[in-house]
Amino acid sequence: MSKTATNCECLLIHKDAVNEVRSALPSDETLSDLADLFKLFGDTTRIKILYLLFEKELCVCDIAALLNMTQSAISHQLKTLKHSKLVKFRREGKVVFYSLADTHVRSIIAQGMEHLAE
Amino acid sequence: MSKTATNCECLLIHKDAVNEVRSALPSDETLSDLADLFKLFGDTTRIKILYLLFEKELCVCDIAALLNMTQSAISHQLKTLKHSKLVKFRREGKVVFYSLADTHVRSIIAQGMEHLAE
DNA sequence: CTTTCATATGTTCAACTGTTCATATGATAA
DNA sequence: TTATCATATGAACAGTTGAACATATGAAAG
Fold first, then answer.
1. What is the pLDDT of residues B20-74, one digit of tens each?
2. Pure H helices in B1-118
3. Crossing angle (nearest 10°) for helices A28-41 and A44-55
4. Of A42, A117, B19, B28, which one's alpha carbon is 20 to 30 angstroms from that of A109?
5. DSSP H or E stretch at residue A64
6. Contact A50, A61 (CB under 8 A)
7. What is the largest CA-CA distance in chain A?
């Protein structure tokens, strides 16, 4: 197997280690999806929105008021969270209430907080 | 308390909901640190590196070969992961071996994978 | 010392991202 | 119908980011 990796100019490669580890890597598609998921948690505004929704459902306007941001900015972020199925919504007249759609949101954020606590 | 949130033009705000939720939000600094942590997991290259290190310690060159990327790109990313204390290293002559420095890395990624599996 | 080579780093640049602004949609009330 | 208002959306713009390239560092060998 001539995997000399054209991009790696190094001459010393630990072939046995490389071969042992190569099979452990999930598919590019899976890893890309995983990175995309974590990207959602990688923005302060989105983290704040999710944190607020831990407590109870909130409308766009309430979230904007709580975070002291424009309704537009919040709406854009909710759109992202909605597309990623982290958040769901229900309409009540003119008002749209958003809430958490996924149980993993809490545990992922909890794990992150645990790391910070060290 | 005149928290009418200058940036929110909406007139309807659910004051009781807002007041109830406001205290649930951690400090801006904590939330910023949390977002920064998740940002690290929000890149395919870094996710791949961490995944590889799940198996065993690897040198820069091995990682570059496995991911078919330049040594420079990998080294830059390892620098980021090192600064964030997710990865540690040990030197052996000219070669630097990297390994996971944090037990939470596994569980955070595992949680993400669980979410995808649904 | 000098050479070799694995790794680190500084710079540049293209691609991406989050916010703002302006505007559109859509539901309710008059 | 028209007016109001909560929300959604499109475009533009600034700030950020990851990779490539060139170069520097530093350890071992000669």
1. 899 989 999 999 999 999 999 999 999 999 999 999 999 999 999 999 999 999 9
2. 15-22, 28-41, 44-55, 60-67, 71-83, 104-116
3. 70
4. B19
5. helix A60-67
6. no
7. 67
Single-letter residue type at B83 = H
- A90, exposed or middle or buried, with CB in 10 Å at 0-12, 13-18, 19+? exposed
| Nearest-angstrom CA–CA distance, B31 and A46 | 10
pLDDT digits (tens, 9 = 90+) for A27-64: 999 999 999 999 999 999 999 999 999 999 999 999 99
**Among all residues of chain B, which has the CA nearest to that of A94?**
B12
Chain A residues within an 8 Å CB radius of B35: 41-44, 46-47
Query: Is residue A71 packed enough to be buried (19+ CB in 10 Å), middle (13-18) or exposed (0-12)?
Result: middle
Phi-psi region of A97 (alpha: psi -120 to 50; beta: other; left: phi over 0): beta
Chain B closest-CA separation from residue A16 CA (Å): 10
In this structure, which long-range contacts are made by residues A109-115, counting pairs with CB atoms below 8 Å and at least 24 apart in sequence? A109/A41, A109/A47, A109/A50, A109/A51, A109/B34, A111/B104, A111/B107, A111/B108, A111/B111, A112/A41, A112/B34, A112/B37, A112/B38, A112/B104, A112/B108, A113/B30, A113/B34, A114/B104, A115/B37, A115/B102, A115/B104, A115/B108
